[in-house]
Amino acid sequence: MINLFRNLFPFIVFLPTFSFADTTENWQLGFQDPATPIMEGIINLHHDLMFFICVISIFVTWMLFRTLWHFSYLNNPNPSSLTHGTLIEMVWTITPAFILLIIAVPSFSLLYAMDEVISPAITIKTLGHQWYWTYEYSDYINEDNEFIEFDSYMLPEEDLELGQLRLLEVDNRMVIPVNTHIRVIVSAADVLHSWAVPSLGVKCDAIPGRLNQTSLFIKREGVYYGQCSEICGINHGFMPIVVEAVPLKNYVNWISTKLTE
């Protein structure tokens, strides 16, 4: 909307430029901008829980200071001899239980949605190594009956171009189409790794000898950055993840190029 006003009224220069934050920013406190329905659900659940947390924190703080105030001899020279109260004990037991039930409904709904894989159109295998990632597109086979497979290494600082992110850019990105159900199978070849991309709401452990799976449905084009989220050795902080979401036409062209390589 802001860009539309800029095009219609170019003399308006005070409107801010809008861009998605698909990687970490300086002094960032909140989430990165979501690109999948799962990440949108995670952010919405967080905001809903923050409402309950703020209300409970304010109420408990008020009760604490109120108690300290009345505990003073000057303010309450004749203290109450009450030791039990059936009503208040029922209230402070039932009320938290009721709040937990309210929280459980959206929480379990989101949990089951994160675990569901809906008829994937593309399956990609992600293999963690010390310290890089290997991607295998097993749905496509070239004339030599070989899958599309490539390694993804972090770019050294001296090879970075203007605009690329230090410690986050790779030489080969994982390219996927937007608005497509994608299954990602995650495993490891040596030690424990974790394939995590915050903007996509994905964090899947890579365990040697075991296949874990997660799903993606990216709603907008962009480049999304992540990192290994498992302490996997001395170079744990140097095996980033870059997922590039492109239109279906561009994805088909990229697959065709990979098959002819």
UniProtKB/TrEMBL annotation:
<dbReference type="GO" id="GO:0005507">
    <property type="term" value="F:copper ion binding"/>
</dbReference>
<dbReference type="GO" id="GO:1902495">
    <property type="term" value="C:transmembrane transporter complex"/>
</dbReference>
<dbReference type="GO" id="GO:1902494">
    <property type="term" value="C:catalytic complex"/>
</dbReference>
<dbReference type="GO" id="GO:0005743">
    <property type="term" value="C:mitochondrial inner membrane"/>
</dbReference>
<comment type="similarity">
    <text>Belongs to the cytochrome c oxidase subunit 2 family.</text>
</comment>
<dbReference type="InterPro" id="IPR001505">
    <property type="entry name" value="Copper_CuA"/>
</dbReference>
<dbReference type="InterPro" id="IPR014222">
    <property type="entry name" value="Cyt_c_oxidase_su2"/>
</dbReference>
<keyword id="KW-1133">Transmembrane helix</keyword>
<keyword id="KW-0999">Mitochondrion inner membrane</keyword>
<keyword id="KW-0472">Membrane</keyword>
<dbReference type="InterPro" id="IPR045187">
    <property type="entry name" value="CcO_II"/>
</dbReference>
<dbReference type="Pfam" id="PF00116">
    <property type="entry name" value="COX2"/>
</dbReference>
<dbReference type="GO" id="GO:0042773">
    <property type="term" value="P:ATP synthesis coupled electron transport"/>
</dbReference>
<dbReference type="InterPro" id="IPR034210">
    <property type="entry name" value="CcO_II_C"/>
</dbReference>
<dbReference type="InterPro" id="IPR002429">
    <property type="entry name" value="CcO_II-like_C"/>
</dbReference>
<feature type="transmembrane region" description="Helical">
    <location>
        <begin position="49"/>
        <end position="69"/>
    </location>
</feature>
<feature type="transmembrane region" description="Helical">
    <location>
        <begin position="90"/>
        <end position="114"/>
    </location>
</feature>
<feature type="domain" description="Cytochrome oxidase subunit II transmembrane region profile">
    <location>
        <begin position="23"/>
        <end position="118"/>
    </location>
</feature>
<dbReference type="InterPro" id="IPR008972">
    <property type="entry name" value="Cupredoxin"/>
</dbReference>
<keyword id="KW-1278">Translocase</keyword>
<feature type="domain" description="Cytochrome oxidase subunit II copper A binding">
    <location>
        <begin position="119"/>
        <end position="257"/>
    </location>
</feature>
<keyword id="KW-0679">Respiratory chain</keyword>
<comment type="function">
    <text>Component of the cytochrome c oxidase, the last enzyme in the mitochondrial electron transport chain which drives oxidative phosphorylation. The respiratory chain contains 3 multisubunit complexes succinate dehydrogenase (complex II, CII), ubiquinol-cytochrome c oxidoreductase (cytochrome b-c1 complex, complex III, CIII) and cytochrome c oxidase (complex IV, CIV), that cooperate to transfer electrons derived from NADH and succinate to molecular oxygen, creating an electrochemical gradient over the inner membrane that drives transmembrane transport and the ATP synthase.</text>
</comment>
<dbReference type="GO" id="GO:0016491">
    <property type="term" value="F:oxidoreductase activity"/>
</dbReference>
<dbReference type="InterPro" id="IPR011759">
    <property type="entry name" value="Cyt_c_oxidase_su2_TM_dom"/>
</dbReference>
<keyword id="KW-0186">Copper</keyword>
<dbReference type="Pfam" id="PF02790">
    <property type="entry name" value="COX2_TM"/>
</dbReference>
<protein>
    <recommendedName>
        <fullName>Cytochrome c oxidase subunit 2</fullName>
    </recommendedName>
</protein>
<dbReference type="GO" id="GO:0004129">
    <property type="term" value="F:cytochrome-c oxidase activity"/>
</dbReference>
<keyword id="KW-0479">Metal-binding</keyword>
<keyword id="KW-0496">Mitochondrion</keyword>
<dbReference type="InterPro" id="IPR036257">
    <property type="entry name" value="Cyt_c_oxidase_su2_TM_sf"/>
</dbReference>
<keyword id="KW-0812">Transmembrane</keyword>
<keyword id="KW-0249">Electron transport</keyword>
<keyword id="KW-0813">Transport</keyword>
